[in-house]
Amino acid sequence: MSRQARQLSETGFYHVIFRGINHQHLFEEDADFQYLLQALKTLKKTMNFEIHAYCLMSNHVHLLMKEQEPGDISMIMKRILTKYAMYFNQKYQRSGALIASRYKSVPVKVDEYFITLIRYIHQNPLKANLVEKLEDYAFSSYWEYLHGSDWVNTELSLSMIGKNEWLELHRVLGDEAFEVSGQASLSDNQVRQKILQVTKGREPHEIVSWSKPERNAVIKQLKAAGVSIRQIERETGISRGIVARC
Prior knowledge:
single chain; alpha+beta; Alpha-Beta Plaits; 2 domains; four-stranded antiparallel beta sheet
C-alpha cells in the first residue's frame, strides 16, 4: 500500500515530530542533544528555513519550522535526520535505522493555535516531570524566548501577544483555558487608564457591584479596546468566566 502524500502547508509552517525507532532513546548524553542543535544551526546557513520553537526529549523531538518554498521540508528533514543518524550510529557502534519510519509534519496556521502550540512544545519536559520550571530544561527554545536568540525566530509569536502575556501563557499547564488576544498586551497602568476612560473616572473595583447590563457593557468595551480577559479579571475582581462570556 502506497504512503499517503504529505499535506502541504499554506503558510509554510509545520509542526515536525520524529521519534526513535521502537521508542528507543535518540540521545544518550548531553553531547548528543548539542550535536543535533548544532546540526540544525549549520543547516540553516545553507538551506533557507526558520526555526520558531524546538524541544528535544530523550526519545522524540518537536520542531516548529517554516519552509520558504513549498516542499522544502522534505529535503530539510532528510538531511538533518540522515546526518544525526550517521553520527549516532558511529558514536555508539550500532547499525540500522535510528528514526521511526516516518516523521510527522503537521501544517500550522498562524493564529491562536500557533501560540498554544509553542507552549505545548515547551511544556513537554514539565509534563514528563523532568524539571519543575521550564527555564531549567536545557534543550528547548524556551531559553531563547527569555534571553534572545541568533538562530531561533522568537519575534513572530512575541509580537502577536506581547512578551508578558506570552510568559503568562506558559505558566498555564496543559489545556487550561487562556485567552490569546492577538494584540500586544497592555501594561497595568495602561489598563487602569482604559478603565477610567470607559467608566468616566470610576474606580475599577467598583464595576463588580454594578448591575449586570452596565457591568457587561463596560467589559465589552474594555475587550474591544485590547484589554485581555486576565487583565480585566485582575483589575476589577470580576471572575474570568464572567469576563469571557461578555
